Amino acid sequence: MDAICRLSPTHDFNSAYQVFSRLRAEECAKNLPWLRENDIAWVLRRTAEELTGRAISDEELHAIVQAQVDAFLSACRAPRGLSELLRRLSAGNKLAVLSNYSISEAVHLALANMGISEYFDIVVVSGDVGYIKPSRELFEYLLARLGCAPGEVLFVGDDWLADIVGACAVGMPAIQVVGYTSKQFADRMEKVFGEYIRKALSAWAYACWKDAKPIAVLESVFDLEWWLKGE
Hints:
The protein is 53% helix and 8% strand. It contains twelve helices and five strands. The protein is globular. The chain starts with a helix and ends with a helix.
């Protein structure tokens, strides 16, 4: 929001964020019931134009989006030992990333900045495909890119709703890394966006969502290597 506030000095962060939140909520109402990704650049442009009362140039929009990317990158930190783990796993496996984020560039830059991009054969970001996890479309797109059947891929994620439900919807075995608790899931479903997610999950394609279960639950991603070895 700081980049937008610089274009409209009469507004502070809180007032700018209120406008952004309202416009984003309008986008969510149109997109989330079908698990479609929002166009965050469009929301940022609309926010800036409403606050400034004028059209925003492409150059100004680029600066605003870049500030959003920079904020994302500053929040991404790889835990110690992750690079070594991925190096060992990639020696005998094809690795891929499936990420929910509307700005694809941010995810690719984050992987590079953390020094782990070289270990992934494929990176799929919702912003490129137009759908978000747990949509079948996004998981099926990943399978097509991998050239694999669902049973040939092991999905690992920490978000039960996005990762486990999505993987199970296409018949892909999944492992959940603890970090997204049942209480967090309940909180999400009770918030304003919950009604949209519930509508999406009412479709026949997600009839299994309440019964979706991982084949294993791990305390840490670093336990994955031992699990794969059966130890």
